[in-house]
Amino acid sequence: MKKRTTARDYPRTARLNTLVRDILARELGRIDDERLEFVTLTSVVVDGDLKKAVAYYDHSRGDEADDEVAEAFDEHRSRLQRSIGREAHIKRTPELRFELDGVLRNAQHIESVIRTLPDLDPGATPVEYDPELYKPDPAADDD
Fold first, then answer.
1. Residues 7, 13, 97: CA angle, nearest 5 degrees
2. How much is the pLDDT for 102?
3. Would you kindly state where each structural domain of the chain is located, as residue ranges?
């Protein structure tokens, strides 16, 4: 029989990260600001001492809207922080900082680069690694 997962089996900081992300997501849904539409909170990292928390986000409005979204988060930061203090029931409310999460954009960029590569012939023989070709040049060490 599988052991039931309890709160003790789940590290405190991971629980806090999830809790703060959920609170922020709910509060973002209540904020009526078109600059924050189509914003996704990708993760939240709360320091173990509860002094700081970084909320990583991304949006689908394009690179030109990055500054606008960051400005909106700055304007609503105190409201979002208050909602954490009100709902989280933790010793102290961490100071919030919002950062753009570039992981999804980097992945999309890598995918677009890969798509531009020419298709390889599936019947082609793979090139064998020849260690003789990659031996260091002893004359280069004399410099």
1. 140
2. 84
3. 9-103
Instruction: Give the burial string for 71-107 (b: 16+ CB within 10 Å, else e).
Output: ebbeebeeebbebbeeebeeeebbebebebbeeeeee
Phi–psi pair at 100, nearest 5 degrees: -70, 130
Encode pLDDT of 112-131 as tens digits: 888 887 766 666 666 666 67
Residue 96's alpha-carbon distances to 105, 124, 138, in angstroms, are 23, 54, 56
Overall fold of domain 9-103: GMP Synthetase; Chain A, domain 3 (3.30.300)
Buried b (16+ CB within 10 A) or exposed e, 5-16: eeeeeeeeeeeb
- Nearest CA-CA partner of 104 in 70, 58, 61, 62: 58
Bridge-based pairing state of the strands 95-100 and 52-59? parallel
Q: Is the pTM of this model over 0.85?
A: no
Taking only the tens place, the pLDDT of each residue in 57-114 is 999 888 888 999 999 999 999 999 999 999 998 888 999 999 999 888 888 888 888 8
